[in-house]
Prior knowledge:
Helices cover 31% and strands 23% of the residues.
Amino acid sequence: MGPRWGCLSQDRATRFVVAWGFGSSEDEVAPKVVAQTRQRTSGRRGVIWISDGRPVYRRAVRQVYRDAQPTGKRGRPPLVLTPGVGLTQAVKRRHQGRMVRVEVRQVLGEAVDCPYPVHEERLNGMLRDRLNALTRKTHAFAKTTGTWDALVILCLFEHNWLRPHRALREAGEGLPEGRRYRPRTPAMAIGLTDHIWTWEEFLTFKHYQYQKE
């Protein structure tokens, strides 16, 4: 199958994975993920991106987040950067194979409180823990790209809809005796559902309705 890379975008406040893509390199899939993220957050202003130091993110964000600005003149209006968009990059500096410091670059917009992709790195670590095919040294190879993609997508679905996140729990009333917090999944926190999904619900849910010809 050869090298297989995954790229994803995550909403920090809710931990919800918004978009993802797979390909032979991060430079190939990152622009697709950025474009997909803008499409799925089209009603939200002020999207702030935090990434590692790869140049592909600077190019992709500047390319995708552009809007036409009418000038009242004939011809195609110029494209300008979408208001409120920001990009912060955390560049890891290494010496003799060991990381010695992290350099923060404010590429677009204003500075953010936590300029490091810690939530994404934690999610990447979780994926490697749950999927042997993603570990750096493994005998559990995915033999086809379809198998690799299906493994990751299923795990991302579980993360979004089935698995409660401790940081998202909220205090509430009317809970069972001995419990002070109501568990929530990222999908609940972002407002897509009001309960924790089960595997049975996922497997029996009618995602598509086919019409007979």
